[in-house]
Amino acid sequence: MSTERRSTSERRSGGGRTQAKASGPGRALSLGRRLELFYYMLLNRRLEERLANLYRQGKVVGGLYLSLGQEATSVASAFALEPQDLLAPMIRNLGSMLVRGVKPREVLMQYMAKADGPSGGRDGNLHFGGVERGLIAPSSMVGALVPVMAGVALASRMRKLDAVALTYVGDGATSTGAFHEGMNFASVQKLPLVVIGEDNRFAYSTPVSKQMAIATLADRAKAYAMAAVTVDGNDAEAVYTATKLAVERARAGGGPTFIEAKTMRMRGHAEHDDGRYVPRELLEEWRAKDPIDRYRAFLSEKEHVSAADLHAIEERIRAELDEEVARAEASPEPPAERGLGCVYAEDPRPFGGPSGHGGS
Amino acid sequence: MAERTYLEAIRRGLLEEMDRDERVFLLGEDIGEFGGAFKVTAGLIDRFGPERVIDTPISESAIVGAAIGAALLGMRPVAEMQFIDFISTTFDLITNFAAKCRYRWGAAVPMVVRGPCGGYVHGGPYHSQNVEAYFHHTPGLKIVQPSTPYDAKGLMKAAIRDDNPVLYFEHKFLYRRLREEVPDDDYVVPIGKAAVRRRGKDLTIVTYGALVPVCLEVASEMEAAGASVGVVDLRTLLPLDEATILEEVSRSGKLLIVHEDTLTGGVGAEVAARVAEKAFEYLDGPIRRVAAADTPIPFSPVLEERVLPQKPDVMRAARELLDY
Fold first, then answer.
1. Do B68 and A151 touch (CB under 8 A)?
2. Cβ–Cβ of B69/A147 closer than 8 Å?
3. How many whole angstroms separate alpha carbon A92 and alpha carbon A47?
4. Angle between helices B60-72 and A145-158 (to 10 degrees)
């Protein structure tokens, strides 16, 4: 409760600044971890740029949902998790999946509906996971993951797994019934759950002003007496610190936290959408707050990372993605018969392709 | 062996599974201290504690969502809908989340959603419904509905042990009206197997739920009148035990489907279609259905009786088919 009160007053006085105060003892990232954080944000961006190219070449089946400009929120929040924790991404949380060990080729093959993708062609985009890899797959129904991850947190507590559950909602998803039911249940049960609410200003074409009458997403949490904090979602260190605090509190039995991350969707809802309803000035304003540019500047100014070292990360990602794209493109389409199997758990047919992908 | 009501047999199934497997837990509205609106879970909180018998807010999406999440992590949750009518408020989590996990990403969701269904108790439009048809259309789900205390326990145990999401519909009319010897041993009634309650040479009635005893009465009375009428109790509605249905209908040559749910798009339509496709040459008459009128379930006893299938309706349809 004190957290909630603090966050509200900070929000009122702090405008758009980073409000989660950084680094308690032992929470500051080492230089090595910071470089890793930068690597994942850049990998997130470059992978999505490759996907956009593949989309334009007609190689992506269906829609392409990008998180360009929102990388800090996904990557830095997932960065605060421990190996035993469980994460459920939404469609703009590719970066969080990369942090959890998902290979770019998996995402590429999903988007291209390839045989060797983790869902074997049965579903697309980021709709895949595996409990054994700490990843719960989303559905397209936004908000649904909140009660599901509350259940994951409940099971973690019952089984004494010491695992925290973390999931994401967009501003639009906070209007769903499932979101509110899950938030309330998690708070009543004091579950080890962290919900990251990404305010990226638009739910498809609907601005936040038409989504809710309250001023800020974090106010949603008040009704549930859930700890809440608002952070600059384009400030990787702020997102990391806020999430780390929330995860630690959850693990210690302190209950759930809602973290509002203020960010901006820099593309349309999906690549078919030119987003003409978004005011140009708003995009310009947020372009100046690009999370990767900011973190690059932070690394060179505060950590004195050389331009050459930063360039080397860029080169490493380029080489890695060249290979990942080639491997993904080389994967065949799935055999048509695969569409018929694995509806029930006892189906003896293999779930995945020759490379043996499978869920739990 | 003890004589138990249908309701007690359900509770016994829950209790035995909770004793056997610490992963099994219950969640729902008023199920703990209060013991549930119908007392199905009475006493369980004393035995297993509030960690395994969880009272929840009135939030069916949270109840089912939490059950899904816990099931993904290897628990065996049993979620109660206080009345099965309320399951509509969590339709998305059941049909889009739980039912598709295995197909979409290979994950098992060993979850049971159970609750009291059915009419004949003057519950009105929101406390009398049969909801199986909404879910019968969803690949990935299993649906069971016991008609005897013995099956109530055995199907509960099978549902809890199943690695898929199972909807367990218990008929509130039967809760305290049926009583029989129910063994205390650890037996299961397998999901996917219908029970041939009577073999019939002249007519087969395929039914389930509270109408099973009614159809059995009809069959007995018909036998006294010289006709051999069989009764198949589906027990599992999804997946259908097609083999048993086809075998029995092939023997008798005539099929009457009886269900309490409304006629249009009901489970009976699927049974009829399968028989028409696969056993047409054995049929000596048209397939007939007796089901509820296509209306909401009315509150007034007079109206409810008019809308829901009654024994004379079954009798009349059976006679017409036998005379065909």
1. yes
2. yes
3. 13
4. 50
Structure tokens at A292: 């990767």
Residue A63: exposure state from Cβ atoms within 10 A (0-12, 13-18, ≥19):
middle
Q: Is A178 touching B (CB cutoff 8 A)?
A: yes
Question: Annotated active-site positions of A, please?
Answer: 265, 269, 277
The answer to whether residue A360 is domain-embedded is no
Task: Kindly state whether B253 is in contact with chain A, defined as any CB-CB distance less than 8 angstroms.
Answer: no
Which CATH number does the domain B195-323 belong to among 2.60.40.640, 3.40.50.2300, 3.10.180.10, 3.40.50.920? 3.40.50.920
Encode chain A (360 residues) as per-residue pLDDT tens digits.
333 333 433 333 333 333 444 444 457 899 999 999 999 999 999 999 999 999 999 999 999 999 999 999 999 999 999 999 999 999 999 999 999 999 999 999 999 999 999 999 999 999 999 999 999 999 999 999 999 999 999 999 999 999 999 999 999 999 999 999 999 999 999 999 999 999 999 999 999 999 999 999 999 999 999 999 999 999 999 999 999 999 999 999 999 999 999 999 999 999 999 999 999 999 999 999 999 999 999 999 999 999 999 999 999 999 999 999 999 999 999 999 999 999 999 999 888 754 444 433
Domain boundaries, chain B: 2-182, 195-323
Instruction: Establish whether this prediction's ipTM goes over 0.95.
Output: yes
**Cβ atoms of A228 and A255 closer than 8 Å:** no
Q: Which two tokens stand for residue A99?
A: 């942090």
